[in-house]
Amino acid sequence: MSDTIQPFEAEVGRVLDLVVNSLYKEREIFLRELVSNASDACDKLRYASLSQPELLGTETELKIEIFADPDAALVTVRDNGIGMDHDELVANLGTIARSGTARFLEAAAAEKSGGVKLIGQFGVGFYAAFMVADRVVVQSRKAGDEVTWLWASDGRQGFSVSEAHEPGPRGTAITLHLKDDAKEFLSEWRLREIIRRYSDHIAFPILLEVKPKAGDTKTEAKGPEKVNEGGALWTRPKSEITDEQYKEFYHHVAHAFDDPFARVHFTAEGQLSYTALLFVPSMRPFDLYDPKRRHGVKLYVKRVFITDDVEALMPRYLRFVAGVVDSEDLQLNVSRETLQHGAVVAKMKKVLTKRVLDELARKAKEDGYETFWADFGPVLKEGLYEDQENRDKLLEIARFRTTHDTGWTTLEAYLGRMKEGQDEIYYITGESVAALRTSPQLEMARVKAVEVLLFEDPVDEFWLPEVGPHQGKSFKSLTKSDVDLSKIKGETAEPEPAKAPEDQARLDQLIAKLKLTLEGQVQDVRASKRLKESAVCLVAPDQGMDLRLERLLKHHESFGGGTKPILEINPDHELIEKLEAMLETDGQGSELEDMAFLLLDQARIIEGEPVPDPGAFSRRMSRYLAKSLQAA
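Now predict its structure.
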């Protein structure tokens, strides 16, 4: 295989430049990342050997070794785990997911400090090696293969992958050619300190060996020494585990750099015995909103790693949770298919979900929870749609924006502020909270001082129709045509007097003309009871879907088309009164046809919908602007 230099993608090159020159403050982090990757490789081999014991061969003790050569300025991190073949080296070390890379660069451009956290968000920890090394060489032989591969890069021009001249040992060895200003990492005490600080919890032995410098007769050459305590952290009593140890274990298991927002550590006993140590992150991963994102919970059986690909352990809306679950009851050779559909795992999932939600409910009473909700709320709200069993708990920890003020509120607080005569929870959905605050649909609610929940996340369109009544109060969209606020007490304005018969007749005539003109564009035209300041608005039919939901579904090929909206006009608006006069003067209403389409397009724009014929809209608008200037 050729060792021709393969260039990095342009974006990957920019990532490496940021990693090396901008982001990291704590350079020692590179060792933690390499050791964590080595631990994962050993875990994967141990699992694979359950069904293929021949993969272990004669080297049955899995371990991680760190060698330092001060004379050559080399540090090598080696494991005898699963290893990588040619394609895996290219995929794992030569590319970064394009979507993740783009978002990484966007975040890095906005972030002036705390770059270590950015690395954790985007899963590019391996590249931290280039912060201390000007050349990295990776030698790897996959378990069960005979060929050893070499991956090499200076972190700038690109990388090469070639077949080694001689077969090497199973596993992966990463050799760093240290920069001149990174020689501190050749010191035994410095390496030992870093390992004890960040990797003491690693379940595999970490062996350290530092070669004495040439000419140093005072230092005796020592063989590899075990420097980590090892063992499964989750099996220790909670009283014996410090916050710092919990934090570093979270960094390891989640491959993250932020501090955990919450943790759950418990042991379940009885018919099903297992221990769980779970963490909720404080920083949002870049792919959090991707439903295909896997959670970070690893399954062990009697301290033996089984898999990190068990979606049945956590519901999709808790996909940001990381940690371990160690069962005493499952069989070591259990298949993944059995895990995905087994009753035992289903029971575990139920308990794990409840424990995490209970901990979030406890954290919801503390400062900082609203910041967490702002990042993770859109995903947790998926549970309101999917998880009927835990819906009440999710509503308890949910936070909402409302017209009451600019902060967050709870549903309980909203219910406590409901007006006399109000028997529904009113809400409105749209593209942004800022835009919703100026929506025409809120005008009557504002007059009556009725508080309205404001929803901007796409998931809101799906869970709101599903939740049903909460404490006897149903959720009601203000964008539906059947909204009636007349029974609610506490108006801040006097009731509108009834129209005189002749005025009502003029209005009915205008509505009839608008219906005829806009036939096929709208389902109906009617006088509005919700508008006070605006001339027009669009609303959804009583039994139809919300307008925003229909816009979202239009992007899917399977969408068969929704219902046409209803155009509501404000009978007391000056524009509508002038249109009544125009129709009375011109019985045919020829000029009114253009105005009817202008009103409809205006309502579409307010609603955030595209104007179907921008050219026609522009021509109509130009004609009426010209007429108004002539009249002036």
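The chain has four domains: 10-229, 234-372, 399-495, 501-631.
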